[in-house]
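User: Here's a chain of 55 residues. Predict its fold as tokens.
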Amino acid sequence: MPKDNKNLIVALDVGTSKVACLVAELRTDASLEILGMGGHESKGLKKGVVVNIEA
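Assistant: Prediction complete.
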């Protein structure tokens, strides 16, 4: 697989109710291009504490 020299920025938000992720590329003009994002319900946390590591 060819290696691209991209300036990628990844953000991951692990919250009590959901996990969200965003992937962006920093462009040469200092703008960001959103490449992808996603989210899913969080099931293993309660009030910021891991309550079910298998979830």
